[in-house]
Amino acid sequence: MDNIKYKTMNKSEFIRAIAEKSGTSQAETKRFLDALTATVEETLSEGHKITLAGFGTWDVQHVAARIGRNPQTGKSLTIPAKKKIRFKAGSELAGNISKK
Prior knowledge:
Blueprint: H1 11-22, H2 26-45, E1 50-52, E2 56-63, E3 66-69, E4 76-79, E5 82-89, H3 91-99
Antiparallel strand pairs: 1-2, 2-5, 3-4
């Protein structure tokens, strides 16, 4: 596998990039992004799935409780059940990323 170092884009850089591409102000773009993330969070917390054709799908998966080990002591411990968010890239997004 290639040893590629990726740059992390923070929220303000992301907002600036979207604003440039959409021709909107950064303030307007921030309001939109905040509304988008709040809606995604609300929808997933209600147990619904979100699908954006070509981009991807978010859903919530239940991870069962399991037995793990404390690496320092070697003792067994119970890792509680939890819910996790999963994102699966759509074919269009995945295809465009793999071409670059």
